[in-house]
């Protein structure tokens, strides 16, 4: 029976038989055999970055054993004809290019010879008489070995670029939400599994000391190789994509919620044997560590950032920011931190490495090593977005159920520096909606900002063209804007510093005092907690508003605190139910007498808050006869006085009911109204 997969915990008898001695201080275990010889086993400290529950050898996985022909140690030969062939299409008028070979060391010549013999044996290359020729060079692999490559840069410059899209890495990670079991598969010699169109083979010729050869299969270094290979992979895995498989060129990740489901998923796939890692609770994928808890930065991938020397030219600054920017979703306020360095990329700015730029350089390195674990988004749940803006840039945080999904930030553009604060805060909201549109569009999202006026954005009457444009964009989302006091007491602190707030002071802990009282920040949740403690607890026993206010003002102060206390006590359900009334009881309601004649009694009301018409009306005055229920609807404005409404009643209701009209006599002609004149 094969017991290699079974873990054994030795008991006391076994430990005693083998004379086991455990040294916890040295972290060693000493075993003594029957012949008296001893064996000492030592343990090393585990890595703090990555924990793998189990990595099973592929030859011991049942699913793999069912498909041995799919997992060969080496590719048997030329790949079969496929729907996708690799093409090298050149710019019009391009002539053949022939480069001289590079000088290499004797050991590298041996490696070239070994690689040529191996590739010739598999049929991947063949001797050539092509007018094209490109030199050979070596690149280091992750395992320390060296890979032979061809320098195709001159060929790439004259090649028409294939625009087949590569997937966004962020979108690939979003598919992994809820997955607990992973398998990572790397295709064996993936590029060599695609044939080159026969007419393009001669363009891949490379020159060596041993002769001129040309590739019959796709080679590393060709500009369109990733696009063509991505096209092939999408066609192969089309029915599984976004269900339990994500693919990025030759990296394949299978994800499942349970091990049983994972086994069924693996049965559907074909991949390379020696580079497969199965049944992991965490797996490195595209420079990240993926687990059921979320994604984090792969420490092995940021070593190049940590080892980056201080830049001496602008090109090195651009390279560092590009490499660090790959992980910018993990770094809060990335743009703000990097601003001293990005200013060097502007035209006409001299390269001067200041202390401020060195501090930004060191801070970015530090943030990468302490980057948090980000949660994978669940598109069935609502999102929360926090936005902020200042003169240095815009900052946003995307969250779900209190867990951070991503950070986003950017610096202000030149024209945005002159925006008022209101527009900058609104720009931060728009930036968040645009950059996370693939998450937020069609889902409920709560947006929090520390600029209170944005809450009433949708009810403002006067907006400039920029605000109207942004407002139309915001209306496309199922959102609600809330206020949170992220900058509570900032204005008071400013007044204290310039000496314009004599009754306020700030202690060493940052607490602001108003005389001998604590100045409570303008945060509704904090105020509500204080009011609840002062009124609802067993020690406070529901005092009245006057006593409660006097108790609170001994320790706390905030603007209009007395009004807040009175309002809180007035709506207390317990007080309304239990406390006795000390006022005179209200009398009984008496019904109104039914009128005997029409328009003897009327009732009226106003409908307000309507959009303003071209004539300036924004309300409707409703007048109803209590007997006949005949109603009149008169357009009015909320600024109308009682006298003006009375005139409207006479002209629009009384005159209309009597069908009477007001007629004026001719000026200076009393004969027009002779009857009245005689009566006078």
TrEMBL record:
Span of domain Reverse transcriptase RNase H-like: 378-477
Keyword Nucleotidyltransferase in record: yes
An example Gene Ontology biological process: proteolysis
SUPFAM superfamilies reported in the protein's UniProt record: DNA/RNA polymerases, Ribonuclease H-like
Superkingdom to which the source organism belongs: Eukaryota
Limits of the Reverse transcriptase domain: 139-278
Stored Pfam families: Integrase_H2C2, RT_RNaseH, RVT_1
Protein name: Reverse transcriptase
């Amino acid at each position: 029976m094969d017991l290699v997969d079974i873990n054994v915990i030795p008991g006391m008898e076994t430990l005693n038989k083998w004379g086991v001695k455990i040294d916890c201080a040295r972290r060693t275990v000493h075993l003594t055999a029957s012949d008296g010889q001893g064996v000492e086993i030592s343990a090393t400290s585990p890595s703090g970055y990555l924990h793998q529950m189990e990595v099973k050898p592929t030859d011991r996985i049942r699913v793999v054993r069912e498909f041995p022909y799919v997992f060969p140690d080496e590719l048997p030969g030329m790949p079969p004809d496929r729907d996708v062939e690799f093409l090298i299409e050149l710019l019009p008028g391009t002539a053949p290019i022939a480069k001289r070979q590079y000088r290499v060391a004797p050991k590298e010549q041996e490696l070239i010879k070994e690689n040529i013999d191996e590739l010739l044996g598999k049929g991947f290359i063949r001797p050539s008489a092509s007018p094209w020729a490109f030199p050979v060079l070596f690149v280091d692999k992750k395992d320390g070995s060296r890979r032979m490559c061809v320098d195709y840069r001159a060929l790439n410059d004259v090649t028409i670029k294939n625009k087949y899209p590569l997937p966004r890495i962020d979108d690939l990670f979003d598919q992994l939400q809820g997955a607990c079991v992973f398998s990572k598969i790397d295709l064996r010699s993936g590029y060599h599994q695609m044939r080159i169109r026969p007419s393009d083979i001669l363009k891949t010729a490379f020159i060596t000391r041993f002769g001129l050869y040309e590739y019959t299969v796709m080679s590393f270094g060709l500009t369109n190789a990733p696009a063509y290979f991505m096209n092939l992979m999408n066609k192969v895995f089309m029915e599984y994509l976004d269900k339990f498989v994500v693919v990025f060129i030759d990296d394949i990740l299978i994800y499942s919620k349970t091990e049983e489901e994972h086994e069924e998923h693996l049965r559907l796939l074909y991949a390379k044997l020696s580079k497969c890692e199965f049944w992991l609770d965490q797996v490195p994928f595209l420079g990240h560590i993926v687990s059921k808890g979320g994604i984090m930065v792969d420490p092995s991938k940021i070593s190049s950032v940590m080892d980056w020397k201080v830049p001496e030219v602008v090109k090195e600054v651009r390279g560092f920011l590009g490499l660090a920017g790959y992980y910018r979703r993990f770094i809060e306020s990335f743009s703000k931190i990097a601003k001293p360095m990005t200013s060097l990329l502007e035209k006409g700015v001299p390269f001067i490495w200041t202390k401020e730029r060195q501090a930004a350089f060191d801070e970015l390195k530090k943030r990468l090593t302490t980057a948090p674990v980000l949660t994978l988004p669940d598109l069935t749940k609502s999102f929360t977005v926090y936005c902020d803006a200042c003169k240095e840039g815009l900052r946003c945080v995307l969250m779900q159920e209190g867990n951070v999904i991503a950070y986003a930030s950017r610096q202000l553009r030149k024209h945005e520096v002159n925006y008022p604060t209101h527009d900058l805060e609104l720009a931060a909201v728009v930036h968040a909606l645009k950059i996370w549109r693939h998450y937020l569009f069609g889902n409920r999202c709560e947006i929090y900002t520390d600029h209170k006026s944005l809450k009433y954005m949708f009810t403002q009457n006067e907006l400039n063209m920029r605000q109207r444009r942004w407002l139309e964009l915001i209306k496309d989302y199922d959102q609600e804007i809330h206020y949170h006091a992220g900058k509570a007491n900032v204005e008071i602190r400013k007044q204290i510093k310039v000496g314009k707030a004599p009754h306020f002071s700030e202690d060493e802990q940052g607490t602001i005092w108003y005389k001998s009282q604590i100045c409570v920040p303008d945060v509704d949740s904090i105020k509500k907690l204080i009011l609840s403690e002062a009124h609802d607890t067993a020690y406070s026993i529901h005092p009245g508003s006057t006593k409660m206010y006097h108790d609170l003002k001994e320790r706390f102060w905030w603007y209009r605190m007395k009004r807040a206390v009175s309002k809180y006590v007035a709506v207390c359900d317990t007080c309304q139910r239990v406390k006795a009334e000390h006022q005179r009881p209200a009398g009984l309601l008496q019904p109104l007498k039914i009128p005997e004649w029409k328009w003897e009694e009327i009732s009226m009301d106003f409908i307000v808050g309507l959009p303003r018409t071209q004539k300036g009306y924004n309300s409707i005055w409703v007048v109803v006869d209590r007997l006949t229920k005949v109603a009149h609807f008169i357009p009015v404005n909320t600024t109308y006085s009682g006298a003006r409404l009375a005139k409207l009643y006479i002209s629009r209701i009384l005159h209309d009911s009597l069908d009477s009209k007001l007629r004026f006599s001719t000026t200076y002609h009393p004969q027009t109204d002779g009857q009245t004149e005689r009566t006078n």
